Amino acid sequence: MKSNMNAPLNLQRTYDRSRVPLYLQVAEVMRQRIEARQWLPGAKIPTLEQLEVEFQVARVTVRQAVDILRKEGLLYCRQGRGTFILDNKTDKRWLKLATDWHSLAESLKGNVPRLIAAPTPTSQPILAAGDGKLADSYVFLRSVQFKDDEPYGIVNLRLASHIYDLDRAAFETRPALPILAELDQVEVKSARQSITIGGADPEVADLLKIALGTPTAMCRCIIVDSHGIAIYVADIIYRSDYIRIDIDLLANGSSKTQTAKSSERKSRKTSGTAKQKA
């Protein structure tokens, strides 16, 4: 029996896979369309009736989703004319999780950490092979990071005590990475960052002002100095709607790629010449 590929999707099973309220799921799809510019600034979005049919939900669910995006500044309503995409030129995904040390440190300048109370952590961070050696002791700093009074990340940082003592006031009032980049006494040997995707638990949702279960980016960043000591070990949770990752796929490898291509062409040419002689 042939399946009907043109049959309308039954979205109920899709909705049931998530415990997120239905109106939040609809709002997220609409938000993604706006961010991807499938719905362009100034354009009128489909009517409530059309969205009700498309998403296979009740009218009240669509209204709730639209209201969320209106409060976020993504939509605005005109009496008797409909709902439109707000022409907002601000790049919401301003936090670029750079793939090099200096760019990452530079991107965090000007942001404001607000220290928060934290449970007593383990005395030493847990390091994997290749993460460097442990310092004699660490200072634990926990903060919510803000930009323009909006929370965007939670940082659980273990900073080597001898580094913290170089400028205690700065480390308690500014993001630590830019400070490390500025310190003449610190020579960075390696800087590694790993990223996984998770969801906001109740505490994270409250601190970052997002809904429970909202996707988050969980980063582990480890900075090792010239002595091989892990001087900075941070576990950071970012709001996923504020971040972006740009990767140059040829960075640090373009010359190798060109060399490989050149060798391959030379090999083919040599092989062809040998066949002609034969």
UniProtKB/TrEMBL annotation:
HTH gntR-type domain segment(s): 20-88
Keyword RNA-binding: no
An example Gene Ontology molecular-function term: DNA binding
UniProt keywords, alphabetically: DNA-binding, Transcription, Transcription regulation
Gene Ontology BP terms: negative regulation of DNA-templated transcription
SUPFAM superfamilies documented for this protein: Chorismate lyase-like, Winged helix' DNA-binding domain
InterPro entries, per the entry: Bact_HTH_transcr_reg (IPR050679), Chorismate_lyase_/UTRA_dom_sf (IPR028978), Tscrpt_reg_HTH_GntR (IPR000524), UTRA (IPR011663), WH-like_DNA-bd_sf (IPR036388), WH_DNA-bd_sf (IPR036390)
Gene3D superfamilies per the UniProt record, alphabetical: Chorismate lyase-like, Winged helix-like DNA-binding domain superfamily/Winged helix DNA-binding domain
Membrane-crossing segments per the record: none
UniProt-annotated stretches for the region Disordered: 255-278
The organism's place on the tree of life at top rank: Bacteria
Pfam families in the record: GntR, UTRA
Name listed for the protein in its UniProt record: Transcriptional regulator, GntR family
Naturally occurring in which organism (per UniProt): Ancylobacter novellus (strain ATCC 8093 / DSM 506 / JCM 20403 / CCM 1077 / IAM 12100 / NBRC 12443 / NCIMB 10456)
